[in-house]
Structure formats: structure tokens, C-alpha cells
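Action item from last week, closing it out:
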Amino acid sequence: MTRNEILKEIKKYFDIGELVCDHVVARWGEAAWQFLDTDLLHCLLVVRRDIVQKPIYINSKSAHQRGLRCNRCDLVKSKNTVYLSSHILGKAVDMTVPAIPDAEKVRELIRKNANLLPCNIRLEKDVSWIHMDVLPQSGVNAKIYEFNG
């Protein structure tokens, strides 16, 4: 799929405010889609539409800074050293699936259907949410690389 095709499809499931922080939405509005990695958007689309097939929450009224984070976000500006993350690079989301409250069950579904993913992903292990990113892991070629945060 091309980026434009991916954007057209993913907008059926998410609006930009669900995927980027409030600061970015306030500054760029709909143009903020440009900051999200194409592979991330494609994987998120596949997970939502083809694997989980249920609503996914990223940013919501009760959960913020779970998609793209900017330098104004509390999680970023509180850092005292150089800080780069897949969230800052537009390559990560933290999500929940209310219809499947056990995050491990969602990770199992993703692992079971890894062949549907358009590229390699990383999943964080042993957390109560699903962190998914498309940041290449040096020396790792596995379709799904699981790591401890």
C-alpha cells in the first residue's frame, strides 16, 4: 500500500488527536499526520482492521502522550539526559483494547498473526498496555521483537 492509501484507510479508525500529543494537534492539526511513520501507520491499520478487529485506544481523555510525543510533553521534558524514543520519532504507540482487557492476549493475537504485518515490529513485554513500534532493532531480524522497557 502507498502512504496515501494507508492514510485513507487508517482515518476510518483513528483521528489525528488519538495518535499525536495535544501540543502537536494544537500547532499542526490535520497536517500532523506527516510526523507519523508510514510503517507504524500501516502496522497499526493491520492490527486494528485485520488482527484485533476491535476498537483500539491510544490517546483518550484519560490517557495522553501514548502516540507521538513532542518536546513539550511532560514525559519528555522531565528527562535530564539526551532522550530519544520511538514515540518522539513518530514510530510508536501505546494502546489498549477495551474489548480485550488482558494486554498479553492482544500481544498473543499479534504474534499469532505476525505474517499479516507489513514490516518487523517491537512489542514491550510484561506491561498492562500494548507498546508497539517499528524502530529497527540493531542485529535483530525477527518479525516481532519483544523487549523489556
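Closing note: The domain at 3-147 is CATH 3.30.1380 (Muramoyl-pentapeptide Carboxypeptidase; domain 2).
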